[in-house]
């Protein structure tokens, strides 16, 4: 529907009908199956459908799981309002499938196809201005797509009234911190604050080998640094967050708890006394990217892979040291270059190198060496909850491996990770 430029929202079938009606819909589409394949209870579906029809809502019923509902409703007779697409969501891709949806949305519900990212940006700017007035706003920039786009949008609305803080913990990929700083200094000028906290973080993880302990220390310190910087700005009323629509839907449906708690690590303070400003909360990822494009953000940022809050620290097995980070950055950079050269950048959800704490024997210039073993990981995923390893072409793997071993003397072995999630996680720690 959104691709047809018509705005839509998703609710679980158990949502009280009043709550749905409060959003002033023009029509309702019912599907019998949620994205994780769960079937709704018949009683809930039947009650919801009847209440909606009774209040005069046009209803489109999708999927053969709801055949019984169509029969039930047809018997009771509600001509004109009731429509169906028995083939289900899959049939939208088939000839004629899209037309049923289009006819329902445009002719029956009489929606106007006006939902575009231009109109979204315009409306958001007005809303943000009206909401925050003259009050001070702060944003934590991680360099990820969502927080960057949220900040850029708010900045478009209120300019330097927004202060953006980027904490460099030293565990970013090669050149990445520099890129973030360069992009946002140019864009935001003095209202962009970059904090070099590398030494603090390195001191904090020194000698720590337990993965959970590493994550915990980094997460807590991150918040502390952010709070310190925010405190220097005086009183702050609003905190910008890059929450996107799937996060909203997931938390409503009680799914995705694990990934969400992860995501809060790099993200922010529950105890802080801010109002949250979440300008992307109605957008799907492809829409966020389109907004980014229209706001003129650089491509490497728009297409950035998901990246864990604790960064390379969870891609170094065992103790993290500045020297190990430097080695991993080089290996990871070579992988990224070769993936780009093979034109695979946008086809893979995540690809990265891992520095293990295993050392193995090798030979270099007729000398025995004893260097680190590096793991290469590439996975495809929809939402990070499950993932399958990518069958990278052998010639790409070969170039990656020989370049890593040639160019990085500390590495004497390269292995390819062929584990899917579950049971393996995407990150090694
Ligand atoms: P796992 O390793 O749990 O990762 O299979 C699932 C997805 O989440 C990312 N990830 C994180 N993202 N903070 C984040 O913002 C974190 O602490 C974190 N840990 C894992 C991971 O890269 C993958 O996309």
Radius of gyration: 25 Å
How many separate domains? 3
Query: Which small-molecule ligands are present, each listed once?
Result: xanthosine-5'-monophosphate
Show unreliable segments: 253-268
- Fold-level CATH name of the largest domain: Rossmann fold
Mean pLDDT: 90
CATH architecture descriptor of the largest domain: 3-Layer(aba) Sandwich
* Main β-sheet description: 5 strands, parallel
Strand content range: 15-25%
Quaternary class: single chain
Query: In CATH, what is the homologous superfamily of the largest domain?
Result: HUPs
In angstroms, what separates the terminal alpha carbons? 39 Å
Find the structural class using helix and strand composition: alpha/beta
Number of strands: 12
**Percentage of residues in helical conformation:** 40-55%
**In the CATH hierarchy, what is the class of the largest domain?**
Alpha Beta
How many DSSP H or I helices?
15
Order of helices and strands: HEHEHEHHEHEHEHHEHHEHHHEEEHE
Largest beta sheet: what is the strand line-up? Answer: 6-5-4-7-8
Q: Could you say which overall geometry the principal axes of the C-alpha atoms support?
A: globular
Topology:
Elements: H1 17-21, E1 28-31, H2 42-54, E2 59-62, H3 67-76, E3 82-85, H4 97-108, H5 117-132, E4 137-141, H6 145-158, E5 162-168, H7 176-188, E6 192-196, H8 198-205, H9 211-232, E7 238-240, H10 245-253, H11 257-266, E8 275-277, H12 285-294, H13 299-302, H14 322-341, E9 350-364, E10 367-380, E11 388-389, H15 394-407, E12 411-416
Parallel strand pairs: 1-2, 2-3, 4-5, 4-7, 5-6, 7-8, 10-12
Antiparallel strand pairs: 9-10, 10-11
Bound molecules: xanthosine-5'-monophosphate.
Xanthosine-5'-monophosphate (XMP) binds at residues 259, 262-263, 265-266, 306, 308-310, 350, 384, 421, 425-427.
């Amino acid at each position: 529907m959104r691709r047809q430029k018509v705005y839509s929202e998703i609710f679980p079938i158990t949502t009280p009908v009043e709550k749905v009606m409060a959003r002033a819909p023009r029509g309702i589409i019912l599907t019998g199956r949620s994205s994780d394949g769960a079937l709704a209870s018949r009683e809930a579906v039947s009650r919801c459908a009847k209440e909606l029809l009774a209040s005069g809502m046009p209803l489109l019923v999708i999927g053969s799981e709801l055949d019984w509902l169509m029969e039930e409703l047809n018997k009771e007779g509600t001509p004109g309002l009731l429509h169906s697409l028995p083939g289900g969501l899959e049939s939208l891709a088939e000839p004629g499938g899209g037309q049923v949806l289009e006819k329902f949305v445009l002719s029956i519900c009489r929606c106007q196809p006006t939902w575009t990212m231009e109109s979204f940006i315009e409306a958001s700017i007005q809303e943000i201005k009206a909401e925050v007035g003259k009050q001070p706003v702060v944003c934590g920039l991680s360099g990820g797509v969502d927080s960057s786009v949220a900040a850029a949008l708010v900045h478009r609305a209120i300019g330097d009234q927004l202060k953006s803080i980027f904490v460099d913990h030293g565990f970013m990929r090669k050149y990445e911190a520099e890129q973030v700083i360069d992009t946002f200094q140019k864009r935001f000028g003095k209202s962009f604050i970059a904090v070099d906290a590398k030494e603090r973080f390195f001191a904090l993880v020194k000698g720590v080998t337990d993965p959970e302990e590493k994550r915990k220390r980094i997460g807590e310190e991150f918040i502390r640094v952010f709070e310190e910087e925010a405190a220097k700005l005086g009183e702050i009323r609003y905190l910008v967050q890059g929450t996107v629509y799937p996060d909203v839907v997931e938390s409503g449906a009680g799914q995705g708890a694990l990934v969400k708690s992860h995501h809060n690590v790099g993200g922010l303070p529950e105890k802080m006394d801010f109002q949250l400003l979440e300008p992307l909360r109605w957008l799907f990822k492809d829409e966020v990217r389109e907004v980014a494009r229209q706001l003129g953000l650089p491509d490497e940022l728009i297409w950035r892979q998901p990246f864990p809050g604790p960064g390379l620290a969870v891609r170094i097995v065992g103790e993290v040291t500045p020297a190990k980070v430097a080695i991993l950055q080089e290996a990871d950079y070579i992988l990224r270059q070769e993936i780009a050269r093979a034109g695979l950048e946008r086809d893979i959800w995540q690809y990265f190198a891992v520095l293990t704490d295993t050392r193995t024997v090798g030979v270099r210039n007729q000398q025995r060496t004893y260097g680190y073993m590096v793991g290469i990981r590439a996975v495809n995923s929809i939402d990070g909850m499950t993932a399958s390893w990518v069958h990278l072409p052998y010639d790409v793997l070969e170039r990656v491996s020989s370049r890593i071993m040639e160019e990085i003397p500390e590495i004497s072995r390269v292995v390819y990770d062929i584990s899917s999630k579950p049971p393996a996680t995407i990150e090694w720690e």
